[in-house]
UniProtKB/TrEMBL annotation:
PROSITE patterns in UniProt: HTH_ARAC_FAMILY_2
Record's keyword terms, sorted: DNA-binding, Transcription, Transcription regulation
Organismal lineage: Bacteria, Pseudomonadati, Bacteroidota, Flavobacteriia, Flavobacteriales
SMART domains tied to this protein: HTH_ARAC
Protein name in the entry: Helix-turn-helix domain-containing protein
Gene source species: Chryseobacterium gambrini
Alphabetical list of Gene3D superfamilies matching this protein: Homeodomain-like
Length: 292
C-alpha cells in the first residue's frame, strides 16, 4: 500500500512539474496532492469549513468559506478543525503564470506579497461564482484544447482580480519579527532590480554580501533570516531570479550573449555560460535556439 501511495505521489509531482499547474477538488483530494513541493508552486484554495492557518508569523482562524493564497517563499501550515471540509485548489508555478509575458511578479501582488493578507472571507454568492471558475479549470486541464494553458492562466488572473474587489479578512494576529521584516525588504529589493531594460546599467546587487551591505546588516544575519522565513538560502533566491531574467532576455530581446551577461552583472560571458548551464543543463545559445 505504501509503495502504491509513493507511486501516486511521484506521478502527481511529475505531472505538476511538467505542466506547471494542477487544479483539483478537495473532496477528491488524496495523499499525493498534499505532498507537492511548496518551494516551487503557488496555491489558491477555495474552502468551506472551520480551520486555523499559520502563515509565516501570523495566525488566521476562519469559519465558513475563504479564499487562501499560498506563496512558496513563505512557510505555512493548515489545521482543519471541522469534520467536513470542501472546496477547490489550483497549484501553479510562477514560470507557468508568467509564460504569457505578464510583467508583475506574483510576490508583489496584494495577496501573495510578503506581509500581505493571504485570506479573504467569501460570501455564498461569491463562492458560487468562484466554484464555477475552479470547475472550468479542472475540466479544461483534461481537454485537448490547444490553448488551454493560456485559458487556465486567464482563469487564475480572473480569480486574483475578483479577489482585489473584496475586503481583507479579519481576525489576524500581527506579530512580525525582525527576521520576517528583513526578509521582506530583501525580497523587495531583489525584485526591484527587474526587469532589466537596457544593457547600459548592469545588475548592481547580485550576491548575499552585496545585499547585506546595502541593507546595513551582517551577511550571516541576512542568510539566517532568509533561510528561517522562506526555507531557501539568500543565494538561491538571487540565482533563481537572475535565471528567470536571463531566460526572458534570451527569449524576448535581440541582445547578444555578451550583452546579456554584462546586463546581469557577469564580468565575462564565460561566467554567464557556466552559471546558466549549471542551473538549466544547457547553455544560453542552445536555450535561445530551442525557444525560436
Amino acid at each position: 500500500m505504501k509503495d502504491k501511495v509513493k507511486r501516486m505521489v511521484s506521478d502527481f509531482n511529475s505531472e505538476l512539474k511538467l505542466k506547471g499547474f494542477r487544479a483539483f477538488q478537495i473532496e477528491q483530494d488524496t495523499n499525493e496532492t498534499r505532498t507537492y513541493s511548496r518551494k516551487e508552486f503557488y496555491k489558491i484554495c477555495l474552502t468551506t469549513g472551520k480551520s486555523k492557518i499559520h502563515y509565516s508569523d501570523k495566525t488566521f482562524e476562519q469559519e465558513g468559506t475563504i479564499l487562501f493564497f499560498g506563496n512558496p517563499h513563505i512557510p505555512y501550515s493548515w489545521e482543519t478543525i471541522s469534520s467536513t471540509y470542501a472546496g477547490y485548489t489550483i497549484l501553479f508555478s510562477e514560470e507557468f503564470f508568467k509564460n504569457s509575458e505578464r510583467s508583475e511578479s506574483l510576490q508583489q501582488s496584494s495577496f501573495f506579497k510578503i506581509g500581505g493578507t493571504p485570506v479573504l472571507k467569501i460570501t455564498e454568492e461569491q463562492r458560487d461564482f468562484l466554484n464555477t471558475l475552479f470547475q472550468k479549470m479542472i475540466a479544461e486541464q483534461e481537454s485537448d484544447y490547444l490553448y488551454k494553458d493560456e485559458l487556465i492562466r486567464n482563469y487564475i488572473s480572473l480569480i486574483i482580480h475578483e479577489s482585489l474587489k473584496l475586503e481583507p479578512a479579519e481576525n489576524i494576529d500581527h506579530n512580525q519579527n525582525a527576521a520576517f521584516r528583513l526578509t521582506s525588504v530583501f525580497l523587495e529589493l531583489l525584485e526591484r532590480q527587474f526587469p532589466i531594460e537596457t544593457t547600459d546599467h548592469p545588475l548592481q546587487l547580485k550576491s548575499a554580501q552585496e545585499f547585506a551591505k546595502s541593507l546595513n546588516v551582517h551577511v550571516n544575519y541576512l542568510n539566517r533570516s532568509v533561510k528561517e522565513i522562506t526555507g531557501k538560502s539568500t543565494t538561491s533566491h538571487i540565482s533563481e531570479r537572475i535565471l528567470t531574467e536571463a531566460k526572458a532576455l534570451l527569449q524576448h530581446t535581440d541582445w547578444n550573449i555578451s550583452e546579456i551577461a554584462f546586463a546581469l552583472g557577469f564580468d565575462y560571458p564565460t561566467y554567464f555560460n557556466n552559471f546558466f548551464k549549471k542551473q538549466t543543463g544547457t547553455n544560453p545559445k542552445a536555450f535561445r535556439s530551442a525557444e525560436v
